[in-house]
Amino acid sequence: MAALVGVAAVVLVGVLVVAPVFHHAVNEVVLPLRHEDIIRQQAHEKRLDPALVAGVIYTESRFRDQTSNAGAKGLMQLTPDTARFVEHLSGGSTFQVSDLSSPQVNIAYGTYYLRYLLDRYGDNESLALAAYNGGEGNVDHWVNAARQKGQALSIDAIPFGETRAYVRAVQSAARQYRRSYRSELGL
């Protein structure tokens, strides 16, 4: 009996030691996080939730530097036109499209644009995310159409299925990042 208790104790200690490592390994595959120092810094600077920034990056690129069919580039999938718009708003003057491959520049520009959209839509996260994906002009049109009916635009009422799914995916990912990466994101 004592041997069985001893084996159980060793197994329990082993599980307690291995579980955090296993949890971290699973997160790296299922919910990766890279560049957390840049995310924390840019989120703080732009008054954003770092988990929301991580959720946008995860949904846009799965933390991979890539170019979409539409020409959006980098971790936060910014089009060159959007990046030039951000450069203009921020007073920058040295932007080059190749800069979007730099995590520092891409996250800085993406978070600037996200803060701009949140300010534009009264800190309505759903509308800002819809505009990040579907464009400001579309969101303005949808908001005005809903307003004419005496309603507010809900996620379910977004006419573009891709944009509806995008808003939900980012918000879900942000919740998961808040739960799984509290210390890494400075939450």
Key terms:
Lysozyme, about 0% strand, mainly alpha, single chain, globular, 8 helices
Question: From the 3D coordinates, which CATH architecture of the largest domain would you assign?
Answer: Orthogonal Bundle
For the termini, the CA-CA separation is: 46 Å
Proportion of β residues? under 5%
Q: How confident is the prediction overall: mean pLDDT?
A: 89
CATH topology value of the largest domain: Lysozyme
Structural class by sheet pairing and helices: mainly alpha
What is the N-to-C succession of helices and strands?
Answer: HHHHHHHH
Overall CATH class of the largest domain = Mainly Alpha
Helix content: 55-70%
What is the β-strand count?
Answer: 0
Largest sheet: none
Radius of gyration computed on alpha carbons? 20 Å
- Overall number of structural domains: 2
Describe this protein's structure.
It is globular and about 75 Å long. It has 187 residues and is mainly alpha-helical. The termini are far apart. Residues 21-27 have low confidence and may be disordered. It folds into two domains: 1-30; 35-180, Lysozyme (Orthogonal Bundle). It has helices at residues 2-30, 36-45, 50-61, 80-90, 103-120, 125-134, 136-148, 161-180. The relative contact order is 0.13. 66% of the residues lie in helices and 0% in strands. It is built from eight helices and no strands.
